[in-house]
């Protein structure tokens, strides 16, 4: 089966004049989202725990990059102050995986960290970026959740629980902020070819892990970061001006 490649920057002015913040933007899906946004005309700021802390932004591809731990309120507050406003688009992409863990072998600290990075972060970035999002007039928040949030797998209780919670947070915020013209949506990727993939498979090489995941996907191949970025581009743009509280599955049919 020939699956065409994703046209990056097919609409070079779709996000012209918009400022976007992408957390987890230094790797994988977040990096592809930042690239798609830049190719679509946006000014993009990325935040990532993997960047060095500094008073000056780092250059990450073509974006300004700030160090931030999205699970930590002081760190997110500092990021929001550095980004300033107006902010038209906030993409919460930072996240951590869970390698298969039997529930009675799960450490409380590991459970709490997954919940903090994957869920508490959505609360913290919304709370601290709200003034900047309001200043944009109309704004869009896109949360990268997971198809495991709607189709859980064994041994992933913390990760699946965090992503199901992230979807519910998305829907609740969508209702809360609708009257203010701030749309909140989610994208649920299936297994995606990024460094994270090996985090689900006890460190097996990404290419090897990708092969076994592909066997479970109706379309027969795993998701590429660009596939997720294309769905995020739609939700972030004015093409989706009346779309809020929804979740787009980007998973080759896996969640059906
Ligand atoms: N790869 C997949 O198969 C897959 C599938 C479904 C959903 N997702 C979700 O997509 C998102 C992106 O994952 P990815 O595959 O690109 O992974 P990745 O590991 O390539 O990128 C994740 C990025 O998030 C950053 N990060 C981690 N913890 C952070 C923190 N506390 N604060 C700030 N930044 C932090 C990392 O440094 C990294 O740059 C995650 O939310 C993940 O759960 C991934």
TrEMBL record:
Pfam (any one): adh_short_C2
Alphabetic keyword roster: Oxidoreductase
UniProt xrefs under Gene3D superfamilies: NAD(P)-binding Rossmann-like Domain
Signal peptide: none
Keyword Oxidoreductase: yes
Entry's transmembrane regions: none
SUPFAM superfamilies: NAD(P)-binding Rossmann-fold domains
Keyword Oxidoreductase: yes
GO molecular function, a single term: oxidoreductase activity
Family from the record: Belongs to the short-chain dehydrogenases/reductases (SDR) family.
NCBIfam families: PRK07231.1
Official protein name in the record: Short-chain dehydrogenase
Organism listed in the record: Prosthecodimorpha hirschii
